[in-house]
Backbone:
């Protein structure tokens, strides 16, 4: 029978199995470093900072409809089509032309902000409506529509300009006509009898001392008025006439305005009366004709607003456009497209891109 000492037996067992147990312990510890110690949570991976996303730029033409009022008369129709094309071409706007009317358009702009633009707003013709719309702070005047404010006056054909020793003026007519030897009286072609300008013209003729020197002709309508003027030019006749701008006739037949002097408000009040006892000379009053723009355009589309603040058309240029419109087969759209294609020297001043 062999003797087994308990300590020696335990020591032998430890020597035999110890390295294996130690190896397991070491492996387990290494694994714990990877998986985390039992009963603990592995740390979350570090967060990667996100790149901030820049907000989308505002639309260049705002968030509302870029509508342009096309009034019924030719010059306003042309301006609406010209601006629609330039806003699309130069600013990327989805500009849309809509029908317009002076009073209704001003009222709508003052209450709804639409249309966005009215390129030819004759403010003095609708003063009460315009002033009410302005008070709502929903629209404003961006710029004068035309470079010249006075639209009415007396004119002569260009071939008569040499007859004046100095400035061709209404005040110079009396001494000039007093020396004329022709038995045929010089005609003054006025406007139709039922127009207010016919009263003003008759009183002005008295004020300038021309009653016995002129034959006043008052046509029945606008068509007859234009016909009389064209016939007088074709005969190379010396004559004077009343007209207004912008208008194709003045560009087609080459006329010159007479200097009417300064505007006298009190004199004009009397000149407008049938029974003006003591008429005095005065120029016709200036018209307030503006590019009307809804207030939201200034807030949402400042580049467009700046363009409209520069978009003043010379009256002579509009006269030429109206003359083109009178060509056979011409349309408002055709003439507007031709202006955009050919007159960049003018409209680039409006866009701010002129060299």
Residues:
């Amino acid at each position: 029978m062999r003797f087994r000492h308990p300590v020696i037996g335990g020591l032998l067992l430890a020597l035999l199995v110890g390295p294996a147990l130690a190896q397991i312990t070491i492996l387990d510890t290494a694994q714990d470093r990877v998986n985390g110690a039992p009963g603990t949570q592995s740390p979350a991976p570090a967060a990667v900072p996100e790149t901030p996303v820049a907000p989308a730029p505002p639309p260049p033409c705002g968030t509302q409809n870029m509508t342009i009022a096309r009034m019924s008369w030719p010059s306003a129709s042309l301006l609406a089509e010209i601006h629609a094309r330039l806003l699309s071409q130069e600013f990327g706007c989805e500009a849309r032309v809509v029908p317009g009317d002076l009073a209704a358009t001003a009222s709508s702009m003052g209450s709804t902000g639409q249309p966005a633009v009215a390129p030819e707003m004759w403010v003095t013709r609708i003063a009460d409506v315009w002033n009410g719309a302005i008070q709502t702070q929903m629209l404003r005047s961006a710029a004068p529509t035309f470079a010249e404010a006075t639209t009415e006056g007396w004119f002569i054909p260009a071939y008569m300009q040499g007859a004046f020793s100095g400035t061709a003026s209404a005040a110079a007519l009396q001494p000039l006509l007093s020396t004329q030897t022709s038995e045929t009286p010089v005609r003054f072609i006025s406007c139709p009898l039922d127009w207010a300008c016919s009263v003003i013209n008759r009183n002005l003729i008295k004020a300038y001392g021309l009653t016995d020197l002129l034959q006043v002709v008052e046509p029945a309508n606008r068509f007859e008025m234009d016909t009389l003027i064209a016939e007088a030019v074709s005969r190379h006749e010396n004559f004077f006439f009343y007209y207004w701008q912008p208008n194709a006739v003045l560009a087609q037949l080459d006329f010159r305005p007479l200097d009417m002097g300064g505007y006298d408000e009190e004199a004009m009040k009397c000149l407008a009366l049938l029974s003006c006892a003591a008429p005095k000379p005065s120029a016709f009053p200036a018209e307030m004709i503006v590019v009307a723009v809804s207030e939201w355009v200034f807030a949402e589309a400042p580049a467009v607003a700046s363009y409209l603040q520069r978009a003043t058309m010379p009256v002579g240029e509009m006269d030429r456009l109206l003359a083109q419109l009178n060509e056979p087969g011409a349309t408002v759209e055709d003439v507007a497209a031709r202006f955009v294609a050919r007159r960049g020297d003018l409209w680039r001043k409006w866009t701010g891109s002129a060299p």
User: Anything to note?
Assistant: Residues 6-35 form the longest helix (30 residues).
